[in-house]
């Protein structure tokens, strides 16, 4: 999909203010409401906009410990990876799971837990029990330096 400046502006605004109403969005980008709404719907239908979410403060939910966990697998087969991915996708503590390269690990997962006891239970009772997991290396987040969800629309090709 070819994006013009209006589409780019719509994406930039909606990534920061997903609850903005159509009239305010149209005013902000300099379009009338009808064409603005048509553009938003076209961006949704094209799959460029994949959804709208509320961002929740993990600490206020009591999830004060965040960890990045590198997971090594015993075999690099589609079946082994599919089993691992299915297993971690149902764990509510897992916020993100990435298949990676360039490390001694095959996956990096980001988890949010209450405390070290909660992390230990997740690690010993769930993660290390997934078939094929041979190594786990944990790093704990001290502070978020950059924490954004918005993608740079202007730098996209």
From TrEMBL:
One of its GO terms (molecular function) is sequence-specific DNA binding. PROSITE patterns: HTH_ASNC_2. It comes from Rhodoferax saidenbachensis. InterPro entries: ArsR-like_HTH, AsnC-type_HTH_dom, Dimeric_a/b-barrel, Tscrpt_reg_AsnC-like, Tscrpt_reg_AsnC/Lrp_C, WH-like_DNA-bd_sf, WH_DNA-bd_sf. Keywords: DNA-binding, Transcription, Transcription regulation. Residues 3-64 form the HTH asnC-type domain. This is AsnC family transcriptional regulator. GO terms for cellular component: cytosol. GO terms for biological process: regulation of DNA-templated transcription; response to amino acid. CDD domains: HTH_ARSR.
């Amino acid at each position: 999909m070819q994006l013009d400046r209006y589409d780019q502006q719509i994406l930039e605004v909606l990534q920061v203010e997903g609850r903005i109403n159509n009239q305010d969005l149209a005013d902000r980008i300099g379009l009338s409401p009808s064409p603005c709404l048509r553009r938003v719907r076209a961006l949704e239908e094209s799959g460029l906009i994949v959804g709208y979410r509320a961002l929740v403060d993990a600490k206020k939910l009591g999830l004060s410990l965040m960890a990045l966990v590198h997971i090594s697998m015993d075999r690099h087969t589609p079946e082994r990876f599919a089993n691992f991915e299915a297993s971690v996708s149902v764990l509510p503590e897992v916020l993100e799971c990435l298949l990676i390269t360039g490390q001694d690990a095959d996956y990096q997962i980001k988890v949010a837990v209450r405390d070290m006891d909660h992390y230990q239970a997740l690690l010993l009772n769930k993660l290390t029990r997934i078939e094929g997991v041979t190594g786990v290396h944990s790093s704990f987040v001290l502070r978020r330096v950059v924490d954004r969800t918005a993608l740079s629309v202007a730098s996209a090709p």
